[in-house]
Amino acid sequence: MAQAVPTFGSPWTALQPRLSQPILDAVLSLGFESMTPVQEGTIPAFMQNSDVVVEAATGSGKTLAFVIPVLELLMRSTTRLAHSEVGAVIISPTRELARQIFGVLEEIIKLGGLDYKPYLVIGGSSSATDTADELAQMKELGPDILVGTPGRLEDILCGRLKRGNKTKSGTITASGGIRGRPSASAQRLEVLVLDEADRLLDMGFEASLTAIFSALPRQRRTGLFSATMSEGLSQLMRAGLRNPVRVQVQVQVQGRHGAGDDGGISERRIPLTLSVKYLVCPPDRKLAQILRHIQSNSAQKYIVYFSTCAAVDYFYKLLRRLLCPTAEIVPGGKQALRSERQRLARLFRVDYSVSVHSLHGQMVQKKRQSTYSAFAALPSGEAGILLCTDVASRGLDIPDVDCIIQWDPPTDPKSFAHRCGRTARAGRSGSALVFLNPGSEETYIDFLALRKIPMAPGAYLWQTEDGSITHDAPEGAVVCETSDDSDDEEPGLGGGEDDGRPEGEEGGAEEPADKAAKKKKKRRGLAVARYPADARSNELIALVRDIAAGDRDIYERGKLAFVSFVQSYLKHEAMYIFRAKELPIIEAARGFGLLHLPSMPELRKRPKGKFERYDIDTDTIPFLDSKREGQRLARLAAAKTKTQQPDKDDDAKLKRKKKKNNTDAWSNAKDEREQVRERRLVRMKKRDAAAEAKEKQLMDQINDPSLRELLAKDPLLVKQMLNQRDKSLRDMVKIAADKRGRQQPAATTQTLEEIVEDARRRRAQVSSDSSDSSDPEDDWEAMARKEKIRERLAAKTKRKRFSFNPGFSDEEGDGAD
Ligand SMILES: Nc1ncnc2c1ncn2[C@@H]1O[C@H](COP(=O)(O)OP(=O)(O)OP(=O)(O)O)[C@@H](O)[C@H]1O
Questions:
Q1: Domain boundaries, the chain
Q2: CA-closest candidate to residue 189, choices 796, 781, 814, 791
Q3: pLDDT of residue 266
Q4: Alpha-carbon distance values, 189 to 10, 216, 456, 505 (Å)
Q5: How far apart are CA 784 and CA 373, in angstroms?
Q6: Cα–Cα distance for residue pair 425/39, rounded to 1 Å
Q7: Which of 397, 416, 419, 422 best tests ligand 1's pocket when mutated (most atoms within 8 Å of CB)?
Q8: Does the beta carbon of 63 sit less than 6 angstroms from any atom of ligand 1?
Q9: What CATH number matches the domain at 275-477, 3.30.420.40, 3.30.1490.20, 3.40.50.300, 3.50.50.60?
Q10: Cα 5 to averaged position of ligand 1 atoms, centre (Å)
Q11: Whose C-alpha lies nearest to ligand 1, atom 23?
C-alpha cells in the first residue's frame, strides 16, 4: 500500500518564532488546527528575513505560507508607511488567482482584527473611466498591501506607459518609454511575493516584471512559490533573490506505481490523494466518453480543459444544447425539441441537472468573474462542468472539484500538474483523466512518469442498449478501421487490456498489405490493435452534426474551434510527442462535429476523401438569432447581386480574393498583418545593409592612393560623392570637375579622413535640398541652428524618459521614476 508524508504537520502554536496572537487567532478561527508541511517549512524562514523559494504540490497550502509571513513582516517592521506607500506586493499570473489570494489575505486581516489595507489591482476594466475610478479609489484608500497581476501593478508602481514602446510580445523597446506618474510608491517595500513564480518568470511577463522590480528597493524580502518551480538559477537571480532558503515538499510513495513497485520509495509531484488516468482513444470518441463519465458518476463537479479559447466557446454552446436543451435554443418549435431530447435520451441520461460554465482569457472580465463565481459556488452534490483553457489551470482553489478531464494535453507540460491539481486539494481525494490519441501521443505517459507524474490506464466506457454505462464492449462490436489516411501509414491504434486501452479485436484473415503496415508500425514502436466500433458514439456525433446543420452559431464556432485546435497542435511544445504528421485529422474533425473540412493550408496536403461531408448547402444554415440572421441574409443577397453583375474592377478583386483564399488560412488575418510588418522590417534591414556596403565600397575607393591626392585637394568633391552614392566614383570626379570648370579648389588644412568625416556629418544633418546649396557657408549656419535645436530637444526628452534596465540582478536601482 502507498504511504505518504502526512498532509498535516505540527500545530500552529509549535511554530518558532511564534506567530503573533492576532494571526494565530485568525488561522485557528478558520478551523485550521495544524500546519501543512509547506507552511511548517516556509513560515519560520520567511518570517526570519530570509528570501524563500518554495516548491510544493498543488493544494498543499502555499497561499497561507506566504500570506502569514507577509503580515508578520509588516507588523514587525519599524518603517512607518506614508499614505501613498505600499509595504508588500503579491503578484499572480491571472486575475482569478489574484482575487483568490486577496480573499485569503482580507479574511486573515479581518479575523485577526489587523489594521492593514489590502488592495486588489487586476486589469479588465471595461472602460478608461472605470480604470480612472479604480485608481482614484485606490489613492484615496492608501493601501499597504497590493495584490494583482503584473501589467496592472506595473502601471501603478511605475506609472502608465504613455507612448507605445511596448512590442506585441510585451517587451519594451530599447528606447525606453514615457510614463505617467506612479499611483503608489514601493520605495520602502518590505516584502515581495511571486505566486506561480515559474509562470511569472517565464518570458510572457518579462517586461512588466522588469519594470516592477526596478521600482522596488533592494533591501526587501522576496518569496517565490509554485508547485512546479524550475531549477533555473537565472530565474531566481532575475527576481533579485539573495541566498534564498529552498523549501521543497516531496510526496513520497511506498509500494505500487512508480519506482516503488519493487517496494522502494518513489517521489511524485502530485498529491497522493490524486489519481491520474489516461485513456488512449480516437479523438471522435472523446465527447461520448465525457458524457458517459458524467452519467456513470453521481452528481459531480468537473473541469474540462481545452487548448484554445475557441474550443471552449464551441463546446460550451454545444454542451449547453446537449445537457440543458430548452425551447429557446432548439429551432423548429416544441416538436423539434422533443425529437432532439428523445435522440439524446438514448445517449445520455441522468436524473439530475448539470450546469455548464466556461472560462477563458478572451472573455470580458465581468463574464469571466460571474461564470467562475457561479461554478465555485455550486454546492457539493450539484453537478456542474467548467470548460476552460489554462487560464484556470494555476492556483485556483475551487471547492469540491471531483474530476479533471483534459480534452487536449497541455502545450506546456508543467500545466499538466497544475490542471490536475484543481482537485484533490488539502488532503481530499480526486481524479483526473487525460485523452491521448493512439500513436506517438502514448509516449506522453513515459514523458510524465519521468517528471514524477505517474498515470494509470483508464477504462473505456461503453453504453449498452438500455443506455447504462459499462466497461465491457457490447457483444458483436465490429472491428473499426481508422478513418484517417493522412499518412501512408495508418496512425497507431489502441493497445491491449494491460495498458487499459480499448480491447483490440483482431479481424479474420489479414491482408498482406495489412500485415506490412502492422510490421512497419511495430518497427516504429506504435500500437497496432484495433478498436471495436462504438455505434453509440457515432450516433452522438451524428446528433451534433444535425445540431450544427440547423444552427449557424454552432456550425461556425465548431469550424473555428477545429482550426484553432489544429493550429495549436502544430505549435505544441512537446513536438516529438505531439507529431503533426500523426494527428488523425479526419477523426479530430469528426470529434468537433464538423460538417465539412474547413479549407486550411495546414490541411492542403492531406487527403480529404474519407471525411464524410454532411449533405447541405452551408449557406442555408441559419442563425437562430433573428437579428444576426437578417444581417447575414442581407450580406448574402448583396454578395449575390455583385457576383451576378461583376464589373471589371470586381472581377480583378474577386480573382485576388480567390488567390488569397487559396494561399491563406481564413483565420489568419492577424498573422498576415504581422507578417507584412516583419517583411517590411526585413526590407528596411536589407536596404540599410546595401547602403552600408555601398558606403564601404566608396570609402575603399577613396583610400585608393591614385585618387587620394586628387580628392584631398577638393573637399567638395568628397561631399558630393557621398551625397550621390549611386554614381560611380570616377563619374563623380568627372561631373564635379566639369561643374567647377576646372577651377583651382580652395586650399585646405584638413586631412582626407577629416574631410570625409566632415562631409558625412553634413550629409546626415542637412536635408538633400540644402546639401545641393551652392553656398556651403549657408549650410553651416543652417546646420548649426538645427543642431542646437536638436540638442535642446534631446536633453528635454532624456529628462522625461523612463530609464529601462533590462537586467534583473541585485544591482538594480531603487526606482525608475
Ligand atoms: N493548515 C491548513 N489546514 C487545513 N486546510 C488548509 C490549511 N492551509 C490551507 N488549507 C486549505 O488548503 C486548500 C489549498 O490551499 P492553497 O490554495 O493555498 O494551495 P496551494 O498550495 O497554493 O495550491 P496551488 O499550487 O494549486 O496554488 C485551501 O482550500 C486552503 O483553505
A1: 3-254, 275-477, 626-660, 689-757+780-794
A2: 814
A3: 74
A4: 31, 7, 47, 67
A5: 66
A6: 15
A7: 397
A8: yes
A9: 3.40.50.300
A10: 16
A11: 59
What is the CATH architecture of 3-254? 3-Layer(aba) Sandwich (3.40)
Q: Mean pLDDT, to the nearest integer, of 287-304? A: 93
Can you read off the three cell numbers belonging to residue 620? 442555408
Lowest-pLDDT range of 34-43, 69-78, 200-209:
200-209
Q: Matching CATH topology for 3-254 and 275-477?
A: yes
Would the pLDDT of 541 be above 90? yes
Ligand 1 in contact with 285 (CB < 6 A)?
no
35 lines ligand 1 (CB under 6 A): yes
Question: Is 0.90 topped by the overall pTM?
Answer: no
**Ligand 1 near 61 CB (within 6 A):** yes
At position 6, the amino acid (one-letter code) is: P
How is residue 399 written as a grid cell? 471547492
Grouping H, G, I as helix, E, B as strand and the rest as coil, residue 72 is: helix
d(CA 240, ligand 1 centre) in Å: 27
Query: Using alpha carbons only, what angle is made at residue 191 by residues 187 and 197, rounded to the nearest 5 degrees?
Result: 115
What is the reported pLDDT for 424?
94
* Residue 422 CA, closest ligand 1 atom number: 26
- The ipTM assigned to this model is 0.99
CB neighbour burial string for 297-313, b if at least 16 within 10 angstroms, e if fewer: eebbbbbbbbbbbbbbb
Q: pLDDT tens digits for 409-444? A: 998 888 999 999 999 999 899 999 999 998 889 999
536 lines ligand 1 (CB under 6 A): no
What separation in Å is there between the alpha carbon of 401 and the centre of ligand 1? Answer: 14
Q: Which atom of ligand 1 is nearest to the CA of 64?
A: 18
CB of residue 421 inside a 6 A radius of ligand 1: yes
Mean predicted confidence (pLDDT) in 739-764: 59
User: How far, in Å, are 185, 489, 810 from residue 608 at the CA level?
Assistant: 61, 15, 58
Overall average pLDDT of the 531-557 stretch: 92
